[in-house]
Amino acid sequence: MVSKWISRLALAAVLVIASPMALAQQMYVDVTNNTGFPIWHLYVSPASASDWEEDLLGASEVLENGRTKRITLTGYKSPRFDVRAVDSDGDSYTRMNVNVRESDVIFRLSDIDI
Question: So which residues are the signal peptide here (predicted)?
């Protein structure tokens, strides 16, 4: 009787601990550069964020024209993200509220932020 109660208590504890982890999922988005220019900076932030997260290309990586980079998104609950690219001329391209479960991002020259 006591061992059955302890087993149920242990199972309940595991479920409580695992619940937040189950809500946060691993997702990804493929970002393709079709702007005609190298992309020097790439930012992906949750759509609910007020600021951009860190530059995913860092100081030494460049996303050349015609290339695609897969961005892994771990620990987020919502699949909605804002994506911004900045090219070698300093021009930016932004997509807001992208559902990464449904689509990837292709930046074209016509997508330039005005």
Answer: 1-24
Q: Hey, what CATH class is 25-111 in? A: mainly beta
pTM recorded for the entire structure: 0.78
93 neighbors 111 (Cβ within 8 angstroms): yes
- pLDDT tens digit sequence for 88-107: 999 999 999 999 999 999 99
In the block, residue with structure tokens 């961005």: 71
Residue 39 contacts by C-beta under 8 Å, 6 or more apart in sequence?
33, 57, 62, 63, 64, 85, 86, 87, 88, 107
The whole-number pLDDT of residue 3 equals: 63
For 26-75, the DSSP string reads EEEEEEEEESSS-EEEEEEEETT-SS----TTTTT--B-TT-EEEEEEEE
Q: How high is the pLDDT of residue 25?
A: 80
Q: How far apart are CA 33 and CA 65, in angstroms?
A: 5
Q: Which two tokens stand for residue 93?
A: 């391209």
Amino acid symbol at 110: S
